[in-house]
Structures are given as C-alpha cells and as structure tokens.
Write a structure and sequence with these properties.
This protein has 2 domains: 187 residues, Spore Coat Polysaccharide Biosynthesis Protein SpsA, Chain A; 240 residues, Spore Coat Polysaccharide Biosynthesis Protein SpsA, Chain A (Alpha-Beta Complex), CATH 3.90.550. Helices cover 26% and strands 26% of the residues. The chain is built from 13 helices and 22 strands. The strands form 4 sheets. Strands 11, 12, 13, 14, 15, 16, 17, 20, 21 and 22 form a 10-stranded mixed beta sheet that branches. Strand 5 and strand 6 form a beta hairpin. Helix 6 runs parallel beside helix 7.
C-alpha cells in the first residue's frame, strides 16, 4: 500500500452497508475506519459500501483506498473472495451495462464528495444504493478496479441467481435521466437485469444499411431478407458490388429494390465501406456483411437505442455461428492481440455480463457495425490502408480516442456465415494489415483491456487465477 507522507493525516473512511449487522474490523495502516448506521453520514474522505452478507478484508480495503486517492478516481470496485478461497475479479464498470443490470457488489470505495454529488445513498434501495450512486455520477464517472479482494462472501459476486430486490427502481431512475426515457422490462433468467421498451410510434432516424457483396446470389437473397427484418426504423440499403461476375448474382442485383453501387476494385473492405457510406442518406449507417442473417424482426432497433446516447460512437451486435455458438460478443485485447471474445462458446455457458446485457467494449466487428453518419464523416471513415483486417478495430480505437464509447448489445442477435463471400484471407494479406495496425496501436495492445475482467479468459470464458498483490 501507499505509505502516507510523514506527518500527513490518516484517511477517514466511513463504512456503510444495508446489513445492520456489519462490523468494522481493524483498519489498515493510515486509515481511520468507523461504521455509519445512517447512509447520509458521509463526514469522511471516503465512503466504503459493503454488500449484505459480506465481511471487509482490511488489506483489500487499504489497497482500494490507495487506488482511489492516487488515481484521482470517483470509485474503485474490489475483487471478492468466496469462503472457499476463490477470488472473483470485478467486472469493469460500464455505464452502458449499468443501465441494464444492477450488479455492483462486494466492497466498493467512493470518494465522499462523489457520493454527495450523486445525491447520497438511498437506504430504501438496499444493496443497490451504490449502483444508483454510480449511475447518478453519469458517463464521465471515473471508476477503477482493484484486483485485491476487499470483501469475503459466501456467494459468487454478481451471480444471476442473487436476488436484487430494488434493481427495477434503480434502473428506472437511470432510464428517467435519458433524454427520451423508456420504460423497462425484466430480462428472463437474469435477476436484476432489464431492457428498455420504446414506444413503437416514436420517431426513428433513417438508417442506411451498407452491404458489400460479390457473386453468391444466395447471399444477396439472404441480405435482402435481413434488410426486410431490420425493424421499426426507416431503412434504406446500398449494395456495394465489388465486381460481381456470376450471372445469377448479377441478375439478383439487377432486380433488387435497393440501390446498387458498382465498385469493381481489388477487394478492400475499408474502401468498399467508405464508398457505401458516402452514398448513404441515413442519419445512421450500419455496415452489414452479406453473410449475416437476421434471426428476428427488429434487429436494427437495439443498435439505434445505443446510439441515442451521444457519448456512444459505435454499436455492434451479438453474432452467432449457424451452430448457435458465439462468433462475436465484442473484441478484446488479450496477450497483445485484438480477438473476438468467447468464440465457439454457447451463450448459456458464457458469463451473463458478457452476453446477457449491453456493455462497453474495446471494439466490435465490422460485420455488423452501426454509427451516426455525422460521426463516420468526422472520423474519416475506415482506414483504407488496412484493406482486409483490423479496419473495424482501428475505427473503434479512434472513436474511443475521441472520448466516445463502443457499445455491444445482445438484444439484436444475428447469424454470421463467416467469410463465405470472399473466403479466407491469405497469410500475406493478414500480415501486412497486422504490421500496420500494430505500428499504430502498440500502446493499446500492451495494456490490459479496459472493459474485460482480469480473471476471465476471452478465448473460452473460464475464470483463471490472477496473482494477488500483497
């Protein structure tokens, strides 16, 4: 832990819990700790909020307070140790996820002035009072994580089976802060989780679907079906024809009701996307691979919901293989490489926070990627030198560098018949794009992924042990 400077006063911490039986253990060095029975008692430097049924671990509390004060943060989420000794790392705070799932638990430390800015802890909300505070702080709240366990609990943190009696009230408050507040409904099988329900008659933007294609008449037909199932938004589509020669595919494109833009150039996904967006009329553009198939009507609407938040710059969807396993639920930086998370994992076997509710991601795939057209123009579109690979990740990283969010939503699942149109890439194509991408983003590739828990492997979703800092 950080040692206090000689003569510096100790940090005062007030501990609050909805559990009336909470007790204060011996405080770690440099901290004066007391228990507050009244949540309005924030006369301290830091407020530590402890979930019911948990006990504070002094070392973890001290580490979290150090992280909070040294990092200039509003709050720090800590890991939680179960009674069997296993440590669960916190899921990084995502305001996008926070709108849909009240899942904060264990021990969280918050600056007292941040609690006051948020309007205080509401005791009527029980264990979800802390979630309400974090949501009230808004999208600019600075929330960090500590890998050292701050609490011990007999249950796994954020388990879907845990009762969240006040979650509906907390998330309804969060929804009411939106410019166009929706009503909310529960997500079956995920306690404390809700999704927005928008009025069907409300105004929706014009959406342009940009569909690069070449040959394969069956994929053109699939894309037309997916376009018809887009949803309540007003939709137009632009097929970007990358030199189709197949007679049946040419005939199919010749009679499609949608616009067809000729682009007989060497394959370059970034250039094809840029040409399609340049021809778009919609306020929102959605890049859509021609080998992506809709499962349900209304798949565009959840993407539009995410983009209604001006702090969100990009939105992407849950994509499944024809087998029903995950092809895409966001792109995660792992071991220095951007990779699709949880590929091949059945959604029922994946962590609930990863596929059950929307959340922030480092990047999403260009196979189904939505942006406001004005934002696309501001970013300059996709980078044409990245002809085949990483152009989508590069775009998302540039959007994040501008201070905007990249959102993933599972509420619009589609099937991705991956790379059926152009086949697999050759090694030289992949290598050239990788070298350029790495030269641009090496600093990101060698840092922990901001939005993915440290103990969950993105390649299989199974928790792994993370070394504990003494």
């Amino acid at each position: 832990m950080i040692e206090a400077a000689p003569g510096a006063p100790p940090t005062s911490v007030v501990l609050w819990s909805a559990d009336a039986d909470v007790m204060a253990l011996p405080a770690p060095p440099g901290i004066i700790l007391r228990v507050a029975r009244d949540p309005s008692d924030t006369d301290a430097d830091v407020v530590a909020v402890l979930e019911s049924g948990c006990m504070v671990l002094p070392t973890g509390l001290g580490q979290a307070v150090d992280r909070l004060l040294a990092g200039g943060l509003d709050a720090v989420l800590t890991a939680t140790r179960r009674s069997d000794g296993r440590v669960y790392q916190p899921v990084p705070w995502s305001v996008i996820q926070g709108r849909h799932w009240a899942c904060t638990g264990g021990l969280v430390v918050v600056r007292a002035d941040a609690v006051d800015r948020a309007g205080g802890l509401d005791p009527e909300l029980g264990d979800d009072a802390l979630h309400d505070v974090l949501m009230a702080l808004g999208p600019d709240a600075q929330v960090g994580v500590s890998s050292v366990a701050g609490a011990i609990s007999s249950a796994a943190p954020s388990s879907p089976a845990r009762p969240r009696h006040h979650a509906a009230a907390v998330l309804a408050r969060a929804a009411a802060r939106a410019a166009a507040p929706p009503t909310i409904e529960g997500i079956p099988g995920l306690a404390g989780a809700f999704r927005p329900v928008r009025a069907a008659a409300r105004a929706r933007p014009l959406v342009t679907l940009v569909v690069p294609t070449r040959d394969h008449p069956e994929l053109v037909a699939m894309a037309e079906r997916t376009i018809r199932m887009a949803g309540s938004s007003r939709v137009e589509a632009v097929f970007v024809d990358n030199g189709t020669t197949d007679p049946a595919a040419r005939a199919r494109l010749g009679r499609t009701p949608h616009r067809v833009l000729a682009a007989p150039i060497p394959f370059n996904f970034a250039r094809l996307a840029n040409r399609g967006v340049a021809a778009a009329r919609g306020d929102v553009v959605v890049l859509l691979n021609n080998d992506v198939e809709a499962l349900d009507h209304g798949w565009v609407d959840p993407l539009i919901d995410e983009l209604e938040d001006p702090s969100t710059g990009v939105a992407g969807s849950l994509l499944l293989y024809p087998s029903g396993t995950i092809q895409h639920c966001g792109i995660v930086v792992h071991d220095g490489v951007p990779q699709h998370a949880l590929v091949g994992v059945a959604p029922a076997d994946a962590p609930s926070w990863a596929v059950g509710v929307p959340g922030d991601r480092t990047a999403v795939t260009g196979a189904c990627l939505a942006m406001r057209r004005s934002n696309w123009r501001h970013m300059g579109g996709m980078s044409a030198p990245l002809a085949t690979n990483y152009n989508d990740v590069d775009l998302c990283l540039r959007v994040a560098a501008e201070g905007m969010r990249v959102a993933f939503t599972p509420f619009a699942p589609l099937v991705h018949h991956e790379s059926e149109s152009r086949g697999r890439l050759s090694t030289p194509e992949v290598a050239a794009d990788w070298l350029l991408f790495r030269s641009r983003w090496d600093h990101v590739l060698h840092a922990p992924d901001r939005w993915w828990p440290a103990d969950v492997r993105p390649d299989d979703g199974r928790p792994r042990m993370v070394p504990q800092v003494a």
